[in-house]
Amino acid sequence: MKLYLDSTNNTQVIIRLGNKEFVNKVDSPRNQDVFGFLLSCLAEEGLKQEDITEILVNLGPGSFTGTRIGVAIANTLGFALGLPVNGQNSPVEPIYFVP
């Protein structure tokens, strides 16, 4: 199952599992729990992390912390599950701004 993760907006997280989309909006960046939200989405669908077969992440640009956290989670899951992230076997890097 394909995982798509977008946390570039520091008050909203978008997760897609296969073709189902989940959105979590919070009133403050301090209330954002990206990994906890991902785990709850997996649980709601009766899935485990091991069911993920492909990982895609929005690299940015976006909020510094939100982008960094989403990319770190994607890279960590990719490493732990032996999966490429955005088609790359090496860690992907966030894009904080576009010149």
Automatic annotation (TrEMBL):
Domain Gcp-like: 40-87
A Pfam family hit: TsaD
Molecular-function annotations in GO: peptidase activity
BP GO terms, sorted: proteolysis
SUPFAM superfamilies: Actin-like ATPase domain
Keyword Transmembrane listed: no
Record's keyword terms, sorted: Hydrolase, Protease
Entry keyword Cell cycle: no
Origin: domain of life: Bacteria
Official protein name in the record: Inactive metal-dependent protease-like protein
Native source organism of the sequence: Candidatus Collierbacteria bacterium GW2011_GWA2_44_99
